[in-house]
Every structure is written in structure tokens, then in C-alpha cells.
Amino acid sequence: MMADYRARGDRHIEYESEKVVGRAIEETSRRLGLQFKSEQVTALSSFLRGHDSFISLPTGFGKSVIFQAAPICVDFIRSYSEDNEDGVISEDKSLVIVVMPLKSLGKLIGDTKAFRSTYGKLNEMRAKLKSSVPVIAMTATATSEVRRSVADSLGLRNYALLSRSPERSNIKHVYLQSKTKDFDRIFEWMAKEVQENGIHTERTIIYCQSRRVVSYLFAMFRDLLPSSHHKNVQMYHTNTEADVQERIIDSFGDTAGEVRILVATIAYGMGVDLKQVYRTIICGRTSDLDDYMQMSGRIGRDGKQSVAVTLRYPCDIRGRILSSTMKDFVGGKECRRDTTRRVFGEGNTSAVLQDHDCCDICASSCTCDGSRCSARRSFLEISLQQAVAVKEHGEELPLLIASPAQVTNLERALDDYRRSLLPEDEGHVYSGADIACGFPVEVGAQIVKDCNVHFNFQGFVARCNFHSSKIASEVWEIMCACL
């Protein structure tokens, strides 16, 4: 049992209990060399008194410190009880800590089925413990519905709630929509920025909704950059080698670290100290607002103005469902920050927030300089807005009905072209042939199926979702030659 104080009805004992808990927290603070925040002290105090607790504190608030400090506090209280005849803790004392390393948790998050299966068994573990063993549930974001679900799953009893809104006034929320999936063109400007500035490039995290997209973007940057700048771009997901993960974490913990662009899944950032990161691109809409707040909340931790851009592209939610709150966030016409505040609460509202620093919707109507806005958009916003603008292409396919021979020739030509994009030794392709060549079999099949349809180049690219403008142009030429 964590802290089973003797119920003697003795005020002296109650006083001693409070005093020992306070001393335990002070000693733990000294040993860790940390000055605990008031929320951390409250959480530890509740835990040491034997209460179940639900702690929802924003990303970067120091939840891992609470986890780290709890056993040290218990050790102090045990030592105190052994050294004093009038100890405040009974002899029936023990501490049960379930340790789930962040890396292991990240792997479960990457595998939704495995995560749900493992998470669902936690209540079984709680049932095997004494009712007096306190349980702490800690998370960065939780709506009231999520909080109720977690409390039921973990069997929390009359739990103490410590909650702070993840909404932060120094993060500007921007939503952009690309009509194509031409990532080469969308991120070409960023590759040039890295090539020109190297280690002085402003740090950016590009969050993706799947490991497949992470791997593709990482390979794309390596193709766009000379080998001398490959060290400036890295990827992080649950299958990234452990030593690479450590190097990335160390680099982002150093203000002069060589990694400047990180392509990652949501697994990156849990329990990690991110320094001087002020911009993030969330590539593809997240399924719910909780995930968005966690991703965007990992920038601007020192309070400086930062920007989080959600980039929508064709089929970005394939196989997933958007929650109603996420639909409101990206699809509504009201201030995006109003949506986050309605779901999570006000958050930090001490700073005066100008419309141009709030979100893209508010910025469009900002009149901070009397009749107009005097603020410049960030380089990230300007560059992405220019990149997602679709360029017209005047050439059109001839309007004709393809003969069976022409269709067969097209099939063969597209198959030959796809093979030409693959490495000579396909045995060393670990990411899958579709990702390695950038021209999936299903896209080729769709082109053959639609070969009788009259497209202009723009409509052709939008329908087929090519991974690069180069591949789109070359496939277009093949179609024109075959048909």
C-alpha cells in the first residue's frame, strides 16, 4: 500500500502526516535538483495521501517528473517511519508501480489494435490490488468524455482531478488545403532552406498520421538534398532504431543540434524536452482534436510565438474517421482557438492576443493598424501557401475512345515505367515497392481504367494523387504517346 495512515482520530498524527508528506516532497525536489511546479506538488501530495488521481496537464508540463518523483517520496516516508517510534505510516505498506517505458508505449500507439488490447487489461490488474493502493492516470489532453472513459477503464474511485487546459495563446493555428499530393513541390522550399542555411535552419517538426507517410517524406528530403545535408533531416517513428531515436532526442535537446527538420509520428515528443522549436506542420488532419493539441503543444514551450499548420491533402483521412470536434476545428468559420477553448477550457489567457497571432481565420480580418493588419505572416505560412497553389497546365488528352490494343500498350508502358523506378536489387527494398518507386500499382490500374475519360493535366493529377510532379509529368507523356 502506498500510504496507509493510521486512523486514530489523533490530530497529532494528522499533523505529522501532513508534515512528513511535505518533507518527502521537499527532499525529493532536492535530490532531483528540480523546483517542482505547484501542480506537481498537488499531484504528489494527493498520491502520497492514498487518493486515486486523474492528472491532465499540457505537453511539456512535467508529467514524467511526477512519475519519477513518486517512488523517491515513498522511500523517504518509509525511512521516516522506521526511524521514528511514532511513525505515521502503518506496517502494512508497499508500493506498486507499473512501468511502461515511453518507447514501448509509442509502439503500442503505433499499433491501435495492440494498444487497445493492452489498455483494456489495466482494469484487470487494478482488480488484483488492494483497494487502498492509489492509481494515477496522467495524460496531456482529455475531454470530459475521454476522462470518464479512462476513469472507468482504470477503476478510479473518488479520484482527485488535476486538470489544466492545453490551449496556449502563443501558438497560432493555421489550416491549409492542398488539391494535390505532390509532396515534392509542397516541401521543395523547405529543402532549399536546409541547403542554404544548414544547421542554422529554423527547427521544424512535420507530424504525419502514418509511418508510411513519414518514410516517404524522409526519402523525399534525402532525394532533394545533397548528401552533406542528410544529417539535418531525420525521421522518428516506433520502428526507428533505438540508437537513432536517442541521437534525435539528444539533438533536439541541444539548441545547436544538427537535426533541423524532423518527420515523425505522434510517438515523438512524449517525455522529451524540446528546445527552441517554434513551428510544426501537421501533414494530414488528425482523427481528433486531442491528437492535434498534443502535436501542436510540443512547440513554443518557452512561451515564444509559434505556428502550427494543419495541411490537408487528398485522401489524408483514408481509413480513419474525423471526430466532430476536429470537423469543427478545420471546417468551421469561427475562430479555431474558440473551438479548442470550448473543448478544453480557456488555458493561459494572461497575454493580450492580437488577431493576427490567433489563427488564420482571425488573421484574415485583423485590423490591428486601424483599418488593416500591419503584421507579416510567418515564413512557414507564406511558403506553404505558395506551395499548395495549383498551377494550370494547358495540355489536354485527345478526346477519343481507346482501342483494346491501345489499352494493352498503355498497361505495358506503365508497368515498364514503374519497374524503371525501382532499384536494380529489389531484395534490398524494405519499405515496399510502392513506396520505393513512388508509383503504386493501384494508381496505374486507375489510370488504365479511366483512359477513356477526357482530362486536362490538372484534373489528371488531382484524380491520381501522384507522389511527385516529375512522375505525374512522365506518366502524362506516356498516356499521350499510347493513346
Biggest β-sheet: strands ordered side by side in the sheet: 4-9-8-5-7-6
* Sequence stretches where pLDDT stays below 50 over 5 or more residues: 1-15, 86-110, 390-400
Number of domains: 3
Second CATH tier, the architecture of the largest domain:
3-Layer(aba) Sandwich
Write down the CATH topology of the largest domain: Rossmann fold
Mean pLDDT across all amino acids? 79
- Indicate the proportion of strand residues: 5-15%
Kindly state the percentage of residues in helix.
Answer: 40-55%
Main sheet record:
6 strands, parallel
User: Mind telling me the CATH class of the largest domain?
Assistant: Alpha Beta
Q: Can you tell me about this structure?
A:
With 483 residues, the chain is of the alpha/beta class. The longest helix is centred in the first third of the chain and has 22 residues, at 11-32. It is built from 21 helices and nine strands. The chain has three domains: 11-163, P-loop containing nucleotide triphosphate hydrolases (Rossmann fold); 171-387, 3-Layer(aba) Sandwich (Rossmann fold); 404-482, no CATH class. The N and C termini lie far apart (77 Å). The strands form two sheets. The protein has a six-stranded parallel β-sheet, with helices on both faces. Helix 2 crosses helix 3 (63-83) and helix 17 packs antiparallel against helix 21 (469-482).
